[in-house]
Amino acid sequence: AGIFLGTYWLTLTIRERERMESRTRSIIDNMLDGLITLDNGVTIKSFNPAATRLFGYEPEEVIGKSIYSLFSLPEEYRKLIGREDYSEDDFILVTETPYELIGHRKEGSSFPVEISISETRVGADRLTIAMVRDLTPRKQAEMALRESKEHLIKQEKLASLGTMVAGIAHEINNPAQAIG
Fold first, then answer.
1. Which of 66, 117, 147, 154 is the most buried (most CB within 10 A)?
2. How is the chain classified by DSSP, letter by letter?
3. Residue closest to 128 by CA, chosen among 61, 42, 60, 12
4. Residue 32: CB partners within 8 Å, gap ≥ 6?
5. Are strands 71-72 and 43-47 parallel, antiparallel or unpaired?
6. List of residues 6+ apart from 100 with CB closer than 8 A
7. pLDDT in the model for residue 95
8. How far is Cα 40 from Cα 159, in angstroms, rounded to an integer?
9. Backbone dihedral angles phi then psi of residue 46, each to the nearest 5 degrees
10. Which of 136, 140, 130, 139 is nearest to 51 (CA)?
C-alpha cells in the first residue's frame, strides 16, 4: 500500500510539474515582447517567438552568440561617450528601468527598441533576462504628433498675421476715407 501510495503521489507531482512547465512555455511563446535569456550575461541561451518576429532570426541562428550582435548604441549616445569604438560591455546593463537601443534585424535594417534587463539565480547559475520591445510604432506616433503640433503652430501664426494685416488695412482705409 505504501509503495502504491508513494507512486501515486509521485505521478501526481510529475504531472503537476509538467502542467506548470507547459503553462509557462505557453505564456513565453505568446508574449508580444521579445524575451531573450542569457548565460554569463552576454551569451544568448533562449529566444522566444516574439524575438524571432522582431529580429528575423530563428532561435538556432542566435543561441550561443553574443547579445551584442543584435544591438548597438543609438548615434547620440556614441557621440556622448566620445568614441565610435565603444566596448560591448558599455551598454547592456542590468537596471531597474528600461532604456533605448538600436536593434538589428537579420535582413540588415535597424529599429529602435526598449530593453529591460534583469538577473536571477537558477541554482548556482546566473540567468540574465532581456525583455525587448519594438519602439517603431511609438516613434512614428511621436513624429506624427510633433508634425501635427508644428502644423498647428504655423496655422495659428498665419491666422494672427491675417488678423494683423486686416487691422492695418482697416487703419489705412479709414484716414483715406476721411480725406476723400
1. 117
2. -HHHHHHHHHHHHHHHHHHHHHHHHHHHHT-SSEEEEEETTTEEEEE-HHHHHHH---HHHHTTSBGGGTEE--HHHHHHTT-SS--GGGT----SS-EEEEEE-TTS-EEEEEEEEEEEEETTEEEEEEEEEE-HHHHHHHHHHHHHHHHHHHHHHHHHHHHHHHHHHHHHHHHHHHH-
3. 42
4. 50
5. unpaired
6. 74, 112, 113, 114, 115, 135
7. 72
8. 61
9. -150, 160
10. 130
- In the chain, the amino acid numbered 99 is Y
pLDDT tens string for the chain (180 positions)?
788 788 888 888 888 999 998 888 888 887 889 999 988 768 899 999 999 999 999 999 999 998 888 987 666 666 555 555 555 555 666 777 888 888 999 999 999 999 988 888 877 888 888 899 999 988 888 888 888 888 888 888 877 878 878 778 777 777 655 555
Q: In the block, which residue shows the cell 476721411? A: 178
Other residues' Cβ atoms within 10 Å of the Cβ of residue 114: 17
Contacts of 180 (CB under 8 A, 6+ apart): none
User: What grid cell was written down for 96?
Assistant: 531597474
> What phi and psi, each to the nearest 5 degrees, are found at residue 100?
-100, 140
